[in-house]
Amino acid sequence: MKITTKFLIGLAILIVLSPLGLLLPEHFMAGSAWGEWGMDEMQKLVGYIPQGLERLSNIWSAPFPDYAFKGWEEKGLLHFSFAYIMSAIIGIAIVVILALLIGRMLSRKGE
Amino acid sequence: MHIPDGYLGPATCGVFYAVMLPIWTAASKIVKKTLKARQVPMLAIGAAFSFVIMMFNVPIPGGSTGHAVGGVLVAILLGPWAACISITVALVVQALLFGDGGITAIGANCFNMAFVLPFVGYYVYRAVSCKASEDSGRKIFAAGVAGYIGINVAAFLAGFEFGLQPLLHHTASGQALYCPYGLNAAVPAMVGEHILIFGWVEAIVTALVVKYLQKHSPDLLLMRQINQDDLSH
Questions:
Q1: pTM (two decimals)
Q2: In this predicted structure, what is the pLDDT of residue B62?
Q3: DSSP strand E in chain B: where?
Q4: What is the ipTM of this complex?
Q5: Sign for the pseudo-dihedral over CA of A18, A26, B86, B145
Q6: Domains of chain B from N-terminus onward
Q7: Measured by CB atoms within 10 angstroms of the end CB, which terminus of chain A is less buried, N or C?
Q8: Which residue of A lies nearest to B170 if distances are taken between CA atoms?
Q9: Domain boundaries defined on chain A
Q10: Which of A7, A52, A91 is facing B169, going by the closest CB pair?
Q11: Considering only CB atoms, which chain B residues are within 8 Å of A33?
Q12: Subunit contact B64:A34, Cβ cutoff 8 A
C-alpha cells in the first residue's frame, strides 16, 4: 500500500475519532482553553468585559462556530458529535483543496 | 493557543500581520525552489493532519483544555518552510470557517503556530538527532523532544502576546481594553499547561508517527535531506 493511502486512512480514522476532542472535555468538566473565553465567562472571571474585547469579539461571524451547526445549540452530545465530524470533513476538504492549489503553484513540474 | 478576536489590541494584530507577510513571502519563494510535484500531496496531507489534530481538545479535569498542533511533525517531514505554509492554511480555514482563532489574530496565531513552532521543532529535531541513523531510536527521541519544545515556545509567545495587552491598552480607571491578564498571569498559565500536559501530547504524536514512518516509509524521513541537497546546488 502506498504511504499516501496509509496517511489518508489515518486521516479518516482521526476524523471519526474527532468527537473525543469534544466529549472528553465535556466529561471531565473542562472549560474553555486559556484565553479563549466567551463574554459570559469573562464577566465571571474578571468582573467586567473589556470594552475593546466586546467590540472586536463579534467582528467575524464564522459559518460553523466552534465546529458546530448554528441552531443546534440546544441539541445533545450526539448531534454535537455529528456536527464535529462534519466540520472535520468540510474543514479537511477545504484545507486539502487550498494546499493542493498552493502546492501546484509552487512546485516544480515533472519531478 | 488560538487567540480569538478581541484579546489582542489593533497594534499587536497589525504588527504580527506585518511580521508574517515577509515570512509567508519567503516561505513561498523557498518552497518554490525545493518542492517537487510529487511532494504536493504531502503538503496537503500535512495541512489536513494539523487541522484535525487541533480538534482533539485534551481536558485538564475541572480546568481548561488544549491540544497538539502537529506542526513539528509536518516540519520534520516537509521542512520548516513548507510546514509554515501547511499550518497557515489550516489556521486560516479554522479562523474563517470555524471561528477558531480570530481573523484579526491570524498574523499572531500564524507567527506562534505556523512559524515559530515548526522552526524551533525542526532545528531541535536536527540538533538532537545529530548524525544518528534514520532507523535509530535516537531519531524517535529527537522527534518527541522537538514536539515538546516547539509547542512550549509557541505557548510562551502566545502567553506573552496576551500578557502584553493590559500594559498597552487600558482605560483611565485601569480597566483592560483587550486581554485583561498581564504577563504575570498569562505566561505562567500558557507555559504551565503546555509543560505539564499539552506539550506531552505533541511530543507523543510526533514521536509515534516518526517511529511508524521509520518502519513503513523511511524514505519520507529522508525527503528533507534531498531538499537540502537541492538547495546547495
A1: 0.95
A2: 82
A3: 58-59, 65-66
A4: 0.95
A5: negative
A6: 10-232 (1.10.1760.20)
A7: N
A8: A50
A9: 3-32+62-106
A10: A52
A11: 1-2, 57, 64-66
A12: yes
